[in-house]
Write a sequence for this structure.
């Protein structure tokens, strides 16, 4: 048993795998904090799923988030778990209202945009920024702070 555990640990170190539920940053990085406006979504599936993301707002405060729909109603709320030391960064949306279900994903911050690739509830973490049957890619722009 010890040998299997040791081999798994060595594999994680060598290949850069993160252990699910472990090794998250203590706090969500400051670069992710703030209010983000949806700019684009790529998703497989029905047209409704590909609705304009520009009407959505993602707010990240501390280790929590709120994802609002176009009319201001809350889509999801919960906590974020982030591994910023991975490439690409890893992010988990832990949804409170859905019995702590987890959407695993990856993220990239570049030129003032946040790109997320999220799997469906319970799906494996995506490895690349590509929409598919169980993944969607979202691009967000940070709202400037108001004085």
């Amino acid at each position: 048993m010890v040998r299997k555990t040791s081999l798994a640990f060595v594999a994680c170190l060598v290949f850069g795998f993160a252990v699910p539920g472990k090794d998250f940053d203590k706090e969500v990085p400051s670069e992710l904090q703030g209010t983000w406006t949806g700019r684009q979504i790529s998703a497989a599936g029905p047209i409704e799923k590909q609705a304009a993301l520009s009407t959505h707002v993602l707010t990240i405060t501390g280790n929590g988030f709120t994802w609002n729909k176009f009319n201001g109603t809350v889509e999801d709320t919960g906590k974020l778990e982030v591994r910023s030391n991975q490439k690409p960064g890893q992010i988990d949306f832990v949804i409170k209202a859905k019995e702590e279900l987890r959407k695993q994903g990856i993220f990239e911050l570049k030129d003032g945009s946040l790109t997320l690739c999220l799997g469906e509830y319970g799906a494996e973490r995506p490895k690349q920024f590509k929409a598919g049957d169980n993944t969607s890619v979202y691009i967000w722009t940070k709202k400037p702070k108001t004085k």
